[in-house]
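Morning F.,

Quick status update on the modeling queue. The single chain you submitted on Monday has been processed. Sequence for confirmation:
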Amino acid sequence: MDYIVEIESYLRNEMTEKEKESFELLVAKNDDLAKELAEYKELFSQFQHAKNDAFVKKQIRIIQEQESRNTKNISGGLRKYVNKYWRTAGIAATVAILASVGTYYLAENTFAHKDEKRILQLVNKEVREIKTKQVRLQNDINKVKLNALPNYPHKGSGTAFAISNDGYAITNLHVIKGGKKVFLFTKDGKAHKCKIIKKDVANDLAVLKLLDSNFTFSNKKVPYKLHTKAELAQRIFTLGYPKNEVVYNEGYVSSLNGKNSDSTKFQLELPSSPGVSGAPVLDENGNLIGIINSKQSISKGITYAIKSEVVKQLLDSVETTSASNLLMPSNSFSSKNRTAQIKSLNDFIFSVKVYK
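Structure tokens below.
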């Protein structure tokens, strides 16, 4: 669908009520898109205003004051200019050209010997600016369309966290199992569609990548470091999404092996609930030592986590499309208190929801 045509139809009140409602819902999901639409409204209103005789006379007086030289008639040059840009500028540029044609006839009929070069430069600048806005607007519309949520309830949910700042994240495979559409929700509540780029069925892990190739989680680096060793009785904490807001829990490592002596996991004394699967397990210095995987149903406090060395093996096997470092080599918040650590983490911990 050509959304630029929709914008023009919307501004000209040519849409049906249903089409108008659908388009306004699309705009409401993106503040930048709303801003661009407002700019186009202003452009249309200015064009309509230019039809007013008093406005035209005022513009004539302004041009007469600014211009002191007499030059050639601008007829031929401007007609060539319109022919050049009519097909390439799109709907928004068409509005600019119409406004420019109005300027042309005003100049031709009132003071036919104005500076052709200067007027063409002004028109050229006008069209370039609107073409740029049109590209930005189309990009925003494409992002909204790409990340649009299905209009039916999600199938399952859990937690994921960033393994690089440019759109890579990790979660439990069982969190997204059976879903065809996967979305990460950043702290601002916005949905971002993902694809699964790597699975580890044996260890219940999945690596995700946001479809928007230009997206970054933050202007800062991932704050935690991948650490491959946990100690018995070590204090730990985690952030997850058992509900629509992030929840903090803390506890300690109660066993270095998981259920039935599983060496790929360790046991935690940590409160857990549905939705926390896939959450990071961090030590007091902000080192990533594991990922929440499951809980023991007979005990509210016993939770199992996948060890970080298993995570490292998976990340070593991922081929990225950029220079991303998926091993998270640096720790930027080891010296911070817990409250400051949590603030540093907020941009990198996500709710993940899947849809059929």
